[in-house]
Protein backbone atom coordinates (compact mmCIF):
# COMPACT_ATOMS: atom_id res chain seq x y z
CA UNK A 1 0.00 0.00 0.00
CA UNK A 2 1.05 3.59 -0.64
CA UNK A 3 -0.41 6.88 0.44
CA UNK A 4 0.58 8.47 -2.83
CA UNK A 5 -2.37 9.34 -5.09
CA UNK A 6 -2.99 7.39 -8.30
CA UNK A 7 -2.19 9.08 -11.58
CA UNK A 8 -5.77 10.07 -12.39
CA UNK A 9 -6.04 11.96 -9.10
CA UNK A 10 -2.68 13.65 -9.68
CA UNK A 11 -3.77 14.72 -13.17
CA UNK A 12 -7.03 16.01 -11.74
CA UNK A 13 -5.05 18.15 -9.32
CA UNK A 14 -3.00 19.53 -12.24
CA UNK A 15 -6.24 20.33 -14.08
CA UNK A 16 -7.46 22.18 -10.99
CA UNK A 17 -4.27 24.26 -10.92
CA UNK A 18 -4.16 25.08 -14.65
CA UNK A 19 -7.53 26.27 -15.91
CA UNK A 20 -6.39 27.89 -19.18
CA UNK A 21 -3.33 28.84 -21.21
CA UNK A 22 -3.27 32.31 -22.67
CA UNK A 23 -2.59 32.74 -26.39
CA UNK A 24 0.54 34.84 -26.54
CA UNK A 25 2.09 33.92 -29.90
CA UNK A 26 1.18 35.31 -33.31
CA UNK A 27 1.34 33.48 -36.62
CA UNK A 28 3.64 35.49 -38.88
CA UNK A 29 1.98 34.38 -42.14
CA UNK A 30 -1.72 34.67 -41.35
CA UNK A 31 -1.77 36.99 -38.34
CA UNK A 32 -3.72 34.92 -35.82
CA UNK A 33 -2.73 34.28 -32.20
CA UNK A 34 -2.16 30.80 -30.80
CA UNK A 35 -0.75 28.86 -27.86
CA UNK A 36 2.83 27.84 -28.57
CA UNK A 37 4.48 24.81 -27.00
CA UNK A 38 6.52 27.04 -24.66
CA UNK A 39 3.37 28.71 -23.36
CA UNK A 40 1.71 25.37 -22.67
CA UNK A 41 4.77 23.82 -20.99
CA UNK A 42 5.43 26.96 -18.93
CA UNK A 43 1.84 26.93 -17.70
CA UNK A 44 1.56 23.19 -17.07
CA UNK A 45 5.12 22.23 -16.10
CA UNK A 46 5.17 23.65 -12.52
CA UNK A 47 1.92 21.90 -11.64
CA UNK A 48 3.07 18.59 -13.15
CA UNK A 49 6.19 18.75 -10.99
CA UNK A 50 4.20 19.82 -7.95
CA UNK A 51 1.89 16.80 -8.16
CA UNK A 52 4.52 14.29 -9.25
CA UNK A 53 3.27 13.69 -12.79
CA UNK A 54 5.91 12.80 -15.39
CA UNK A 55 4.94 12.71 -19.10
CA UNK A 56 7.16 10.41 -21.16
CA UNK A 57 6.97 10.56 -25.00
CA UNK A 58 7.25 7.35 -27.02
CA UNK A 59 7.42 7.77 -30.78
CA UNK A 60 5.25 5.16 -32.49
CA UNK A 61 5.48 6.27 -36.10
CA UNK A 62 7.11 8.93 -38.25
CA UNK A 63 6.78 9.56 -41.98
CA UNK A 64 8.54 12.04 -44.22
CA UNK A 65 7.92 13.35 -47.69
CA UNK A 66 9.30 16.14 -49.84
CA UNK A 67 6.74 18.76 -50.85
CA UNK A 68 6.66 22.22 -52.39
CA UNK A 69 4.96 25.35 -51.16
CA UNK A 70 2.67 27.29 -53.49
CA UNK A 71 5.65 29.52 -54.22
CA UNK A 72 7.68 26.55 -55.39
CA UNK A 73 9.99 26.37 -52.38
CA UNK A 74 11.07 22.81 -51.49
CA UNK A 75 10.16 21.67 -48.00
CA UNK A 76 9.97 18.53 -45.88
CA UNK A 77 6.67 17.42 -44.38
CA UNK A 78 6.87 15.34 -41.22
CA UNK A 79 4.01 13.42 -39.61
CA UNK A 80 4.42 11.63 -36.29
CA UNK A 81 2.32 9.56 -33.95
CA UNK A 82 3.42 9.74 -30.32
CA UNK A 83 2.27 7.90 -27.23
CA UNK A 84 2.55 10.05 -24.10
CA UNK A 85 2.66 8.05 -20.89
CA UNK A 86 1.74 10.10 -17.84
CA UNK A 87 3.30 8.51 -14.75
CA UNK A 88 1.78 9.42 -11.39
CA UNK A 89 3.49 9.65 -8.02
CA UNK A 90 2.38 6.10 -7.16
CA UNK A 91 4.08 4.68 -10.28
CA UNK A 92 0.92 3.93 -12.27
CA UNK A 93 0.28 5.61 -15.61
CA UNK A 94 -2.23 6.72 -18.22
CA UNK A 95 -1.47 6.72 -21.95
CA UNK A 96 -2.64 9.09 -24.62
CA UNK A 97 -1.76 8.79 -28.33
CA UNK A 98 -1.64 11.94 -30.43
CA UNK A 99 -0.51 12.99 -33.93
CA UNK A 100 1.81 15.80 -34.88
CA UNK A 101 2.48 17.35 -38.27
CA UNK A 102 4.89 20.04 -39.41
CA UNK A 103 6.75 21.39 -42.43
CA UNK A 104 10.22 22.86 -42.50
CA UNK A 105 12.63 24.14 -45.11
CA UNK A 106 15.61 22.69 -43.25
CA UNK A 107 16.19 19.92 -40.74
CA UNK A 108 13.79 21.00 -37.97
CA UNK A 109 10.65 19.23 -39.20
CA UNK A 110 10.84 16.37 -36.72
CA UNK A 111 11.39 18.66 -33.75
CA UNK A 112 8.44 20.81 -34.83
CA UNK A 113 6.16 17.80 -35.29
CA UNK A 114 7.10 16.42 -31.86
CA UNK A 115 6.40 19.83 -30.31
CA UNK A 116 2.97 19.88 -31.93
CA UNK A 117 2.26 16.38 -30.60
CA UNK A 118 3.30 17.36 -27.07
CA UNK A 119 1.14 20.47 -27.14
CA UNK A 120 -1.86 18.45 -28.30
CA UNK A 121 -1.26 15.82 -25.60
CA UNK A 122 -1.09 18.35 -22.78
CA UNK A 123 -4.05 20.41 -24.00
CA UNK A 124 -6.28 17.39 -24.45
CA UNK A 125 -5.17 15.27 -21.49
CA UNK A 126 -5.70 18.22 -19.16
CA UNK A 127 -8.85 19.44 -20.97
CA UNK A 128 -7.44 22.95 -21.34
CA UNK A 129 -10.05 25.13 -23.05
CA UNK A 130 -9.50 26.46 -26.55
CA UNK A 131 -11.71 28.71 -28.63
CA UNK A 132 -10.10 28.01 -32.00
CA UNK A 133 -8.00 25.24 -33.57
CA UNK A 134 -4.37 25.22 -32.50
CA UNK A 135 -1.86 26.00 -35.21
CA UNK A 136 1.88 26.29 -35.67
CA UNK A 137 3.64 29.62 -35.75
CA UNK A 138 4.39 29.05 -39.43
CA UNK A 139 1.99 27.91 -42.09
CA UNK A 140 2.56 26.83 -45.67
CA UNK A 141 0.43 26.30 -48.70
CA UNK A 142 1.20 23.20 -50.72
CA UNK A 143 1.63 23.61 -54.42
CA UNK A 144 -1.21 22.18 -56.50
CA UNK A 145 0.06 18.89 -57.95
CA UNK A 146 0.41 18.83 -61.69
CA UNK A 147 -1.83 16.19 -63.22
CA UNK A 148 0.39 14.47 -65.72
CA UNK A 149 -1.09 11.57 -67.65
CA UNK A 150 1.18 8.58 -67.83
CA UNK A 151 2.71 8.13 -71.27
CA UNK A 152 1.09 5.22 -73.15
CA UNK A 153 3.14 2.05 -73.41
CA UNK A 154 4.90 1.25 -76.72
CA UNK A 155 2.60 -1.73 -77.29
CA UNK A 156 -0.47 0.45 -76.80
CA UNK A 157 0.88 2.98 -79.29
CA UNK A 158 1.53 0.23 -81.86
CA UNK A 159 -1.94 -1.29 -81.42
CA UNK A 160 -3.43 2.16 -81.99
CA UNK A 161 -1.37 2.59 -85.16
CA UNK A 162 -2.61 -0.77 -86.44
CA UNK A 163 -6.18 0.28 -85.64
CA UNK A 164 -5.72 3.62 -87.39
CA UNK A 165 -4.24 1.93 -90.48
CA UNK A 166 -7.14 -0.56 -90.54
CA UNK A 167 -9.66 2.28 -90.43
CA UNK A 168 -7.80 4.16 -93.16
CA UNK A 169 -7.77 1.09 -95.43
CA UNK A 170 -11.33 0.03 -94.62
CA UNK A 171 -10.28 -3.34 -93.24
CA UNK A 172 -12.50 -5.37 -90.96
CA UNK A 173 -11.00 -5.21 -87.47
CA UNK A 174 -11.95 -8.82 -86.77
CA UNK A 175 -10.09 -9.98 -89.88
CA UNK A 176 -7.01 -7.96 -88.92
CA UNK A 177 -7.03 -9.53 -85.46
CA UNK A 178 -7.51 -13.00 -86.97
CA UNK A 179 -4.56 -12.45 -89.30
CA UNK A 180 -2.36 -11.41 -86.38
CA UNK A 181 -3.27 -14.55 -84.42
CA UNK A 182 -2.51 -16.72 -87.47
CA UNK A 183 0.97 -15.22 -87.70
CA UNK A 184 1.97 -14.98 -84.03
CA UNK A 185 -0.34 -17.48 -82.25
CA UNK A 186 -1.30 -14.87 -79.63
CA UNK A 187 -3.87 -12.06 -79.62
CA UNK A 188 -2.54 -8.57 -80.22
CA UNK A 189 -3.42 -7.58 -76.66
CA UNK A 190 -0.81 -10.08 -75.41
CA UNK A 191 1.78 -9.44 -78.11
CA UNK A 192 5.24 -8.03 -77.63
CA UNK A 193 6.41 -4.70 -78.98
CA UNK A 194 8.55 -6.53 -81.56
CA UNK A 195 5.60 -8.59 -82.84
CA UNK A 196 3.33 -5.56 -83.13
CA UNK A 197 6.01 -3.55 -84.87
CA UNK A 198 6.65 -6.34 -87.42
CA UNK A 199 2.92 -6.73 -88.03
CA UNK A 200 2.47 -3.00 -88.61
CA UNK A 201 5.31 -3.03 -91.13
CA UNK A 202 3.77 -6.04 -92.88
CA UNK A 203 0.35 -4.39 -93.15
CA UNK A 204 1.89 -1.15 -94.38
CA UNK A 205 3.87 -2.92 -97.09
CA UNK A 206 1.55 -5.77 -98.22
CA UNK A 207 -1.87 -4.91 -96.86
CA UNK A 208 -4.37 -7.40 -95.45
CA UNK A 209 -4.37 -10.71 -97.43
CA UNK A 210 -8.12 -11.21 -97.07
CA UNK A 211 -10.99 -9.59 -98.97
CA UNK A 212 -12.56 -7.78 -96.05
CA UNK A 213 -13.14 -4.13 -96.72
CA UNK A 214 -15.40 -2.42 -94.24
CA UNK A 215 -18.34 -0.73 -95.91
CA UNK A 216 -17.48 -2.14 -99.32
CA UNK A 217 -20.47 -2.79 -101.60
TrEMBL record:
InterPro entries: ERF_bacteria_virus. This is Single-stranded DNA-binding protein. It comes from Prauserella endophytica. The lineage of its organism: Bacteria, Bacillati, Actinomycetota, Actinomycetes, Pseudonocardiales. It holds the Pfam family ERF.
